[in-house]
Automatic annotation (TrEMBL):
Residue intervals passing through the bilayer: none
Function: Exopeptidase that catalyzes the hydrolytic cleavage of multi-L-arginyl-poly-L-aspartic acid (cyanophycin; a water-insoluble reserve polymer) into aspartate-arginine dipeptides.
Name this polypeptide is given: Cyanophycinase
Annotated GO MF terms: peptidyl-dipeptidase activity; serine-type peptidase activity
Source organism phylogeny: Bacteria, Bacillati, Bacillota, Bacilli, Bacillales
Reactions performed catalytically: [L-4-(L-arginin-2-N-yl)aspartate](n) + H2O = [L-4-(L-arginin-2-N-yl)aspartate](n-1) + L-4-(L-arginin-2-N-yl)aspartate
EC number(s) on file: 3.4.15.6
Source organism (scientific name): Halobacillus mangrovi
CDD domains, per database record: GAT1_cyanophycinase
Keyword DNA repair attributed: no
Amino acid sequence: MRKWLFLLLSVLLVVGSQSGVTHAEKEEGGIKGNLVIVGGALGSSNSEVYQEFIELSGGKDHAKIGIIPAASSSLKSTQKFKEDLMSYGVGEASIEILPLSSHDFKGTDENESKWKSNVQKNESVDQIKGLTGIWFVGGDQLKITDTLLKKNCKQTKALEAIWEIYRDGAVLGGTSAGAAIMSDVMITGGDSLGGFHQEFVEEDISNPEAEYAPVYLEKGLGFFQWGIVDQHFNERSRLGRLAATALKYEKNQLAYGIDEDTAIVVDNQEQTIEVIGRSTVTVVDPSDAQSNGEEIKDLDISYLSAGDRYQVDEKNYIIQEDKVTTNGYEYYNFDPLPATGVLSSYGTLPNYLSYSLVDNKAVNEVYSYLYDSQGDGFELTFDQDENSEGFWGYQDGQKDSYSLLHVNMHVEPIEIDFEESDQLFKDYQKSMFTPPNSTYTPDTKGSLVMAGGALGSSNKEVYDAFIERAGEGAKYAIIPSASSSLKSSHAFMKDLGSYGINETNIDILPLSNHDFKGTEEDESSWMDNKNDRKLAEKVLDYDGVWFVGGDQTDITATLLNEDGSKSKVLESLWEIYENGAVLGGTSAGAAIMSDVMIAGGGSFDTLAKGFTETYDSMSQQEGGPSYLEKGLGFFPYGIIDQHFDNKARLGRLIATTAAHGEEREYSYGIDEDTALIFDSNKQSVEVVGRGGVSVIDLAEAKQPGSSPSSYQDIRLSWLTSGDLLDLNSKETSISDHKVSTTDYEYFYYEAAPHSGVLTPHPMLGNFLSYTLLDNEKEQEVKSYSFHEGKGFELTFKKGKDTEGFWGYQDGNKDDYSYIDVYLDIQPVKVDIEHIK
């Protein structure tokens, strides 16, 4: 439930819960049942997790499943899980909501606190013994243990019955709080700062005035025999609290942090743990780590993704066979900046370590930081040794999927100080780029589907948007020129086929300025095709055209003549667009849509260094000053940027907009697996997909003083699926499934600044949603990004027009939007003192 989706500082004291961390005796090979442990925010569309749980329960025709609602404050999540099971084929008569709770639920006539006595009734025992699977919904894990444990921590009759069917072969599953109760040592509250400060409590001492919380531990139910489990792991950046707990209480066991919408499947007979779902599982091995006060050395961290397994008895990792090693074959070769706030690329720890360290031949260690607003915190060093391994593959289409083994983490206490200075970036280079004149005509009838990259094959919302706008019986063309091979073009053709498009209606056009890998033909010979009259005439027959991702400069070089004029093929693309066709693209295929095309550069470097007139191909995608080129101009209402969340491109889009944005026009940063749809008839843009679109408004922004790197009063909005912006009136329509958080903020706590990859909710949209928009206590929050003693303080503030919105999506996942958050950017000197 939403009420329990943020345990950073607020943990309710439950009457009758037992303090004290104890260890249950391990079962010696006697458990025949399995576990499905989900890290929270399980999407109703996550078929892999639902089907696994149903199959382990006996299959949809034979399963008999009981749902325990005790963790939640209402029966809503319980009823939703029942509906989800039924949508996957389980009959309604085969699903029971077990009347087990220690508290009353909101929204019902019955007083469910009376259910507490049911745990000692034979009727409940008989009901449980007839089940093949039990599911614990999310909420407050203390409410589960308070329901199923006696005051002396011994098992109630209901819990004894659950253990009996578990030993005999039943599957137990749970999400969020339902995952936390699975281990003996149950982490009930706290955060990474509290963990690194080595602060532990066995009672609720939560304080909304404090910026971090000590780690609160209680006794769990012990179904999981092989270590500690934590949940909402990557989203709430809980590595610090899990690592500290493992070092203190379970040094001879591994500890497992499960991301949202992700599960581990535990086979007690085979003694294996397998990962399924959409994200990663962190495995912490504290056995060889050393801890001295607040300093930690040589903590072993691994990351597993879907299909990976761990053999407990043999202490062996088995990586999904479709992944290939990165060792000796690293794809990237760049000097990464330390992960220091919302301007850092790959802002979550698994992504940062994957791209910047393990799959990057340039470095052997990387850094991040975690600290409070007083600068009291920690420097985090991550390095590789001879045991470190990386593995890469694709998942859900062409999304990168990494697994990492044996990265070392070191934690050192620091004091950090920031001092404002407008004298730091005197070598800032202004943009010398001359924007082209727009060739868009107001009577254009077509539409655009601009995806931010990493588009999942399962993202039905985006594919449907493209197909519906092409129309029934449409013919499609794919332009492959951005890519280094034809693989992504064939993958997109296959995806269209999976959504009902006959592949005979799809063509891959012979347009490229370079040769493709893996083919016999030399596709660089296609360069002259852009002015081939027959190909230009053929283009006129298409109703939908898609640009695949890669390097956007290859698209413009393929379709523009050397003098910048339109080729014959590009003229045909404009003609069908003006007559009603849909044009779409992902990543590079989105970047080319505006007149001003951002081709390279990073956020920190663009704010610090400005712009460059040279371009070093794809290596410049990971940093450096921004490089601009002429785009194709199909979208006439502002500048487009992509991979916005994962590559943290806020800074470069702001600087580019300041240099070349038109009056009253916004700029748009599109997240991965998300699309911005432009409807030329309605003169509007709408968001679809799994992320959001950041809207940058510099209409009232100022650049005070002489520093080109300083800004005041930038307006920042974040729109998510179903939200719409009228480009003429500038009015925003928020999807009607969301409600305003303004004056109804759910949280009340002091928020620490965004300081690196272990900041809770590290991606920009979620960070602002949870810490500012839906937090009554804060009127502003800060983030710091820095390198070699120089950096930026970013202050995000509420103003008179600021409004946040919240709802549920895809099950019980939080879905936020906000409009008109104010942003100031101030250069700062940075001094770091290491505390010994």
